[in-house]
Automatic annotation (TrEMBL):
Name this protein carries in UniProt: Uncharacterized protein Mb0911c
Organism in which the protein naturally occurs: Rhodamnia argentea
Listed PROSITE patterns: VOC
Entries under InterPro entries matching the protein: Glyas_Bleomycin-R_OHBP_Dase (IPR029068), Glyas_Fos-R_dOase_dom (IPR004360), GlyoxalaseI/FosfomycinResist (IPR050383), VOC_core (IPR037523)
Domain of life of the native organism: Eukaryota
UniProt-listed Gene3D superfamilies: 2,3-Dihydroxybiphenyl 1,2-Dioxygenase, domain 1
Domain VOC: 4-130
Amino acid sequence: MNPAFAYTVVYVKDVAKSVGFYAKAFGYAVRRLDESHRWGELETGQTTIAFTPLHQRETDDLTGVVHTPESRRDRPPIEICFAYRDIDAAYKRAVESGAVPVSEPEEKEWGQKVGYVRDLDGIVIRMGSYVQAPKQD
C-alpha cells in the first residue's frame, strides 16, 4: 500500500500571523495553533497545510538552513495551489485580506481559470477553478 501524503510544511517568519492570513485570505479553518506558535495547521482536506518557523532546531541543526528569496524577483522552489468554484470571488477575497496580487484570474487553454498572488512570505499561491474532465464521445 502506498503511503498517504499527509502534510505540506510551509516555513514562515511568523506562524500565528501566517495561519491567520491563510484562514482569512483563502477560506480555511484553523485546525491547530500550538501555544508556542511554532506549529500551526489548517483544515484543508486529505493533505494538511502546516506552518513552522524558518529557524528552529529541526531546520538549522538537523536538516539544514531554510533559504528564503533575496528579492521579489526570486521565488521559493514551491508553489501552493488552491481550487475554487468561484475563482474571481476567491481571488478578490485573498487580495482584500492582504495577499499581494501577481496576476488576476484568466482563462487558460486547458480549460481552467487561474490567478496568482503572493502570501506574507512571498510564496506564490496559484488560485484556479476546478478543471473539468474531458467529455467522452
